[in-house]
Structure formats: C-alpha cells, structure tokens
C-alpha cells in the first residue's frame, strides 16, 4: 500500500470533495448518498453527530428554496402556499452538497488523526506565506476548531463559564515529515486538475 504524506492525502480528499460539488444534480445526489453511506460504515457515531448538528440548516435550505424559487407548484390548487418542483429540486441539490461535504469531513476525521491533519494543513498553507498567511496560526486555529468539533455540546451557561475562565496553556507539537516525490506529484496533479475544471 502506497504511503502518502498527510498533505498529499488532504489534497486528494479536497480534490474528491470539490469534484463531487461540480457534478450535475442527479450524479451529485447519488454521490452524496454513496459518501454518506460510506461515512456511516466508517464512523457511524461521528457521522450522525455531525449531521445532527446541521439538521436545522438542511431543513432551512430545503424550505427556503422550495418556497422561494419560481416554478411549477407542487399543489396546483394552493399555488400561493405551495412549494415549487423547481425549488424542491434546487433545495435537494444544495442540501445534498452540504450532506456530501459533512460526510467527507467525517471520513477524513476518522481516517486521519488530528495531529496529521494539522500537519497537512500547516504544510499546505506554508505555500501562502508570501501572501501574509501564517502557517503556524492556521495550524493552531485548526487544532482548536477540531477540539471543539469532537467536544461534547455544553449548555449556554456552562459554555459562558468556560469562555470566561482563564485558559490553560497548550502546546501544539507537530511531527514534521518531508514531502517525497510522489507526494509532490499527487499535490501538483490535484492542483492542475482543479485548475482545469475551473477553467472549463
């Protein structure tokens, strides 16, 4: 089995995630269902937890597009109060894109330990250093976000107490690994394919 640097693995993941988003509605819907099913098999608990956290957003997307998009009314006798078929289709497409992305995140977190994920983003963001992007800050912020993502949800009063309490100092240690030739090939291929898709 070929072993890739975490940065190359993250690049492949991003490439697949972007590719799914660019698919036509029907193909994207099928891909979203397949990715969601794969995420359930790989890590059912985490996947359901992430989907539960976005359930309101999914409902809002479906309702907003269903009732705000012009088109053929689902209930022809109640046109003023009816959603449209075009809106339902558009809402399902956008909800499917969101579900696919959340499922991809679940798979990524299940297959890549957080230290490797932070390292991968640290390496990839280092390319943006000439633009003023600090790879160290990106890594620290990502580690904080991931810590909150897996943390249990707190009541708002408890959360306020936690925020107001003095923070304990934390040390973030990354196990630096050099990119090999195959890692450079993978990252470059993903970037070139993304550029090609964007150009087309």
UniProtKB/TrEMBL annotation:
Segments crossing the lipid bilayer: 12-42, 54-79, 91-110, 117-135
Alphabetical list of InterPro entries matching this protein: ABC/ECF_trnsptr_transmembrane
GO cellular component: plasma membrane
Keywords of this entry: Membrane, Transmembrane, Transmembrane helix
Membrane topology, record value: Multi-pass membrane protein
Superkingdom in the source lineage: Bacteria
Subcellular location: Membrane
Family stated for the protein in its record: Belongs to the CbiQ family.
Protein name in the entry: Energy-coupling factor transporter transmembrane protein EcfT
Originating organism: Denitromonas iodatirespirans
